[in-house]
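Researcher: Structure for this, please.
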Amino acid sequence: MGTLRKDGRLQLVALGANVSANGEPLTQNLSHAIKAISDSGFDLRAVSRFFSTPCFPAGAGPDYVNAALVVRTALFPSQSLERLHEIEAQFGRERVQRWGQRTLDLDLIGVGDDVLPDEAEYHRWRALDPALQAQAAPDRLILPHPRLQDRAFVLVPLVDIARHWPHPVLGETLEQLLSRLPQQDLAEVVPL
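Model: Predicted structure, token format:
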């Protein structure tokens, strides 16, 4: 897919870091990452506040700083993800352990009403046994992110900027999905 779409599409991106890439505070690292995303051709439409969140899974490292973006781009989702991975690498991200410590984590969460690669594959990854989730990684982009509805550290920043985005499979807005999470999970996501 070497060509671009004719129309720019809104895409949701989640950001996080729990290890500094250069000794600066994590909030500064995320600010630099947001600038790098903008400089690489994504049109920033909205930037959430920064939030302190517990490490996921618990005990896997220091706490995170998380945020979210709405961007517009003519890139296809797979191209966007590739570009986001290039930015992660610029910030020292090494993919050595699933759910390990990260200098920068950029996840493409959703693109309009796209369900990729298809609804059956989306449901397969969404239903993956929790014991296998830490070991198995998809070999292609799955959209929307199969576990976004389960993670306060993703939903809270997204609701900050895109509360009315409708999940194309579950049929609920981000705000509605957030309202279903346990209060304890929500209380752990603290604005900075």
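Researcher: Any notable elements?
Model: The CA atoms of residues 33 and 90 lie 9 Å apart. The chain has seven helices and six strands.
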